[in-house]
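It is time I had a proper look at our fold encoding. Can you supply me with one protein entry, sequence and fold together? It will help me judge whether the discrete encoding reads sensibly. Leave the record below and I will have a look:
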Amino acid sequence: MAPNHMTTIPPTEPAARSAAAERMRLHRERRRNGMRCVTIEVHDSEINMRVHMKLLKSEMRNDANAIIEALYAHLDRTLDLMP
């Protein structure tokens, strides 16, 4: 009679999400948190004003991410002043 061997099944890792599935998950999470994504056009003079306000370094005026951060900072300052 052959010995009774138990076969163990190794734990499997959860399937990796596709990039599209991850974007959708993050989108839904932001919506649940009350966030909305909008696209806006920003005039050069508005970028210059963020530099003048020291919210954006002059050498970063062509960096889209730096401009976005400067706009966030501006909104935070402006909205914090509202009653």
Summary: The chain has three helices and no strands. Residues 41-83 form one domain.
